[in-house]
Amino acid sequence: MKRSECPISNCLDFVGDKWSLLIIRDIALDGKTTFGEFIESGEGIATNILSSRLKQLEAEGFIAKYPLEGKNRTGYYLTKKGIELVPIIAEMYLWGLKHGGSNTRKKFASALKRDKESAIQELTEELLKNAKALQKRSKK
């Protein structure tokens, strides 16, 4: 349910909680795809919250599932809607570095500082290519 017509409020209705953006960050910047990989992130998300956020992000169309080899496992990838958040995450990353955050993704930070627009475009293109491949795989 929309709280208001404000575009920022609308965006926050979908990804305004800490965990949703961190899951999207983990997929986009770290290549994480599984429940276990998300749990291992340094922020310490609880399993019940992670499960809830994954379901919510999938229901809202930010991520999609795909089957993994063996033991009925599932992976997640960003959809086009989720990939559209990459520029926001990049800006948040740069802001966080400027205001005391630790540079844990040196390659990404270096690319952003060198040429922000190109770095965002390259990451976006890579994620879109990956999403197309995984979408085909999940339909088999």
From TrEMBL:
Short name of one Pfam family: HxlR
Assigned keywords, A-Z: DNA-binding, Transcription, Transcription regulation
Record InterPro entries: HTH_HxlR, WH-like_DNA-bd_sf, WH_DNA-bd_sf
Domain HTH hxlR-type residue range list: 6-104
Organism: Mycovorax composti
Transcription in keyword set: yes
Protein name stated in the entry: HTH hxlR-type domain-containing protein
Leader sequence residues: none
Transcription regulation as UniProt keyword: yes
